[in-house]
């Protein structure tokens, strides 16, 4: 049991900050696992021609590639803490990087290295579980969004008939109130598609014009 527990803990850590060969494998595994909610999130963004999009916790760059392939976006920037996973994202988005339409940055989500009012949309898919400080991160999201821009944060809150009370509480008691405290308007919770029996939801909020 000791070895099984050790392996389980190692894999769990890889989801937060993938490293090495195992981290590369985990990154590609997440690409396959999260396709339904990734496509849904991109639909929610409603990207129009000429917009600039920021993804927090970009992982192996699957959402970035879909955005570049499916929309008329001007620029997609992906931020992740893991240099391993950024390498995977760079391989997946080679054409976008070469065309100067994609950029990858290693950084912490609560200290974004971008100018104020730089992006039209901000998205994050299954990354919020690992954010160290929600208030600081939402303050940064608000700062880098242009007036009228908005964020979409996608996550799971249940599996089959099991409601995850910890996640539910985090959303109701912290995520939504913190988004409002940081100035976001029309903060809403939407139900999304099921993904491998997991219940997908998204929280959205707009910055004032």
TrEMBL record:
Domain Methyltransferase type: 54-153
Domain of life: Bacteria
Keyword annotations: Methyltransferase, Transferase
Protein name: Class I SAM-dependent methyltransferase
CDD domains: AdoMet_MTases
GO terms, molecular function: methyltransferase activity
Organism listed in the record: Mesobacillus maritimus
InterPro entries: Erg6_SMT_methyltransf, Methyltransf_11, SAM-dependent_MTases_sf
Biological process (GO), any one: methylation
Source lineage: Bacteria, Bacillati, Bacillota, Bacilli, Bacillales
Pfam families attached to this UniProt entry: Methyltransf_11
